[in-house]
Amino acid sequence: MITLYQTEWCPYSHRVRQVLTELGLTYTTVCVPYAAEDRVDLLAVAGQTGVPVLTDGDGVYRDSDAIIAHLRATYPAPEDAGDHAAHGAWRTATQVAGDARSALARLKTRLDEKGFVVLAEIAGSTISRRLPDDHVVLQVTVPVAAAKAAGVDPLAPAALMFPMAVVPQGDDVCTVAAADPVGQVWLHAEPDLIKVQGAVKKRLEVLLATL
């Protein structure tokens, strides 16, 4: 029997749950107390209070990387594993023809057409000396969606800003990537915000398909 000791708000626990879902595995979750000193049962099982911890039969696996490595090595992936992985990915991306400058120009045009607003544009070399200037990161939002989100929570518009990047791949090919707009709010299970972000995500998917 597989048992996952975790918390819902822990991103490392989420990583493990995602892989368990991809592999179609049945498991039991134990949501540990918030305070480490109260995690007596977890300490007895794993010798630590940090999460996630996974037990599988007699095996005890600590740290999300070790847990995921064990799961992938032990259990075969079902046919729909890739679909689960794609739907749960933290970002989406597409390849476009042309150099980075032309890809960026097309992207900004499409963003404007679809009601997105670019809040910031950052050259890659500003982020790291290892990145070229034509590796560009944009901070993007949708004002209409941000206004709706503010009606749910005054701080919510901060979650509706998400990064996009134009990444040169050489030979006149670029990758345009975007963080999943839903990813920043789904974990908090706020239905109204998820609905707003879901609409933004669909608009973004249409945009990327037309680059």
Brief digest:
The protein is α+β, with helices and mostly antiparallel strands and 211 residues long.
CATH superfamily of the largest domain: TT1751-like domain
- Using the CA coordinates, give the radius of gyration: 20 Å
Low-confidence stretches: none
Percentage of residues in helical conformation: 25-40%
Number of domains: 2
In CATH, the architecture of the largest domain is: 2-Layer Sandwich
Under CATH at level 1, the class of the largest domain stands as Alpha Beta
Q: Please give the alpha-carbon distance between the first and last residues.
A: 47 Å
Strand % is 25-35%
The backbone outline, from C-alpha atoms, is: globular
Give the number of helices: 8
**Helix-strand topology string:** EHEHEEHHEHEHEHEEH
Briefly note the CATH topology name of the largest domain.
Answer: TATA-Binding Protein
Q: How are strands sequenced across the largest beta sheet? A: 5-9-8-7-6
The overall pLDDT average reads: 88
Give an overview of the whole structure.
The chain has 211 residues and is an alpha+beta fold. It folds into two domains: 2-85, Glutaredoxin, CATH 3.40.30.10; 90-209, TATA-Binding Protein (2-Layer Sandwich). The chain has helices spanning 11-22, 40-46, 64-74, 81-87, 100-113, 124-127, 143-152, 191-209; strands at residues 2-6, 28-31, 53-56, 59-62, 91-97, 117-123, 136-141, 162-170, 173-179. The strands form two sheets. A five-stranded antiparallel beta sheet has the order 5-9-8-7-6. The protein has a four-stranded mixed beta sheet with strand order 2-1-3-4, sandwiched between helices. Strand 3 (53-56) and strand 4 form a beta hairpin. Helix 1 (11-22) runs parallel beside helix 3 (64-74) and helix 7 runs antiparallel to helix 8. The protein starts with a strand and ends with a helix.
